[in-house]
Amino acid sequence: MSDQHFTALPKPHTTYANIIKSLLPIGENNKVSKDQLPQATYTVDSLQIDQDNLDDYRKICGFDDNGLVPITYFAVLSQALQMNMMVKEPFPFAMLGLVHVENSVTQYRPIMDTEVVKLAVSFDNLRDHDKGQQFDFVTTVHAGEDKIWEGTSTYLSRSRSKKGKKSSSRPKTVSTKPQVPENGIKAVFEAPEDIGRRYAFVSGDFNLIHLHPLSARAFGFPKAIAHGMWSKAKCLSKLKNLPDAYQANVSFKLPILLPAEVELIAQNPSELSADNETFFNLYSVKNDKPHLLGEIVAVEGL
Q1: For 45, which DSSP code?
Q2: Order of strands across the sheet with 132-143?
Q3: In which element (H, E) is residue 86 found?
Q4: Strands (E), the chain
Q5: Which residues contact 282 (CB under 8 A, 6 or more apart)?
Q6: How many alpha carbons fall within 13 Å on the CB side of residue 191?
Q7: Using CA atoms, how far apart are residues 294 and 83, in angstroms rounded to an integer?
Q8: Which of 37, 203, 208, 275 is the one with CA 20 to 30 A from 16?
Q9: Mean pLDDT across the chain, nearest whole number?
Q10: Do the first three CATH levels of 1-168 and 170-302 match, i.e. the same topology?
Q11: Domain ranges across the chain
């Protein structure tokens, strides 16, 4: 186990050279077994939130400036550690082939933006998928001995030759756009052409598929696409009266080709159903196809 501890989040530019190198196909001489993930945990022991960055994040995603950390923000901060792990550990997949397919974040209580916390990231749950292999990045946030937040980002490494049983995804795909529930939420908003570049400067995620049509075409997309975590955050920012302790799960479907107009349809979180779940989905205004399928689940808090 090659655990590493940091006094602060690594700066993205410090790993760019290695990230570019990792985008190249893995050669036969340095191929790593795809049957296991590195047994490593990267930790920032005393994380203080950069208030300027948080303010920028709130503005670009639409969250209120209320002194609380948005539920998706630690998922963004954890990406700096994730990138370091993929380039420094014996990581078995090329970063170029990774697709972010699901994300789950849970807060166990409201978190003040002035709190000093411990943030840790590790690999987990390598499994087969009918299109390749999936694995998770698991992030935890502690305040003292209490786990106050956790998140799981699921990635797919595609392989033409890999055949296996498809992992279950949640929430399940729906074929048609639902009607707006009674007392539900409908919101139409723009995903502008430059949102990928703007979000990249806030999040540190400068994946070329998000930045410009020309760079996106090099990776098979006709246009630049929006960051999935921006679309998730934007949806959650429009949901009010959320519980103090809850989980927000999403399954990313069709990419948002920029620019685009999208439509959020959701149940009202203040009217959680008997099983303590409610949904929020994001669709294309142009053709009603799903970009994101999500659910809110109330959990037991601290």
Answers
A1: E
A2: 4-6, 41-47, 117-129, 132-143, 146-158, 98-107, 246-252, 290-298, 277-284, 260-266, 185-191
A3: helix 73-88
A4: 4-6, 41-47, 98-107, 117-129, 132-143, 146-158, 185-191, 246-252, 260-266, 277-284, 290-298
A5: 231, 235, 262, 263, 264, 265, 290, 291, 292, 293, 294
A6: 32
A7: 25
A8: 37
A9: 87
A10: yes
A11: 1-168, 170-302
Measure CA of the first residue to CA of the last residue in the chain; give whole Å: 31
Q: Look up tokens 């602060």; give the residue.
A: 8
CATH class of 170-302: alpha beta
Average pLDDT over every residue of 163-178: 54
d(CA 155, CA 294): 17
Q: Is domain 1-168 annotated with CATH 3.10.129.10?
A: yes
Q: How confident is the model at residue 19 (pLDDT cuts 50, 70, 90)?
A: low
Phi, psi of 139, deg, nearest 5: -115, 135
Compute how many other C-beta atoms are within 10 angstroms of the C-beta atom of residue 33: 8
Residue 38 is encoded by which pair of tokens?
């590195």
- Dihedral-angle region of residue 111 (phi above 0 means left; psi in -120 to 50 means alpha; beta otherwise): beta
Q: What is the pLDDT of residue 32?
A: 56
Tokens of 101: 């397919």
Residue 276: how many CB atoms within 10 A of its CB?
13
